[in-house]
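ugh ok fine here u go
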Amino acid sequence: MASPTTSLLALILFAIATGLPAAHAFAINGQTVLGIQVSGTLACSATGNLPGNGIAGVLASVTCNVNGTPTVLGVATTNLNGVFVALITNLSGLDPNSLSCAIRVNLPILTCSLLPRNGVLQAKVNLKGTVSQATIGLVADATIGPFSIV
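structure:
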């Protein structure tokens, strides 16, 4: 009988050699993607939308409905220009044909007096229908719609 280590190694080598599909992946335009890369900008304005100066150092979370439950699947921090790029790597329970995700930013943001003191900024995530190469492999490109206060 083989040792547990040998059995595990054999299983890993088999998976690599046979090219078993990655778990939690889906296809965009016939290409298998391993994640979704969401990009957008947070601006200092009454709504958080451009035009306005970007707001640096703000945490933005990607929340998706997974089997009917809102679940945080990615987070990012805005750069000096207010730009964020969040990577979703857990695609389990997500359907690219009916993606229900949003970027959420908690208020207040002390460095922007134009935004309300209470609430959450929220913007819908929209798949662009294109893919790009990331460190994890191919990812679906996504942008956000306009922020609204909820």
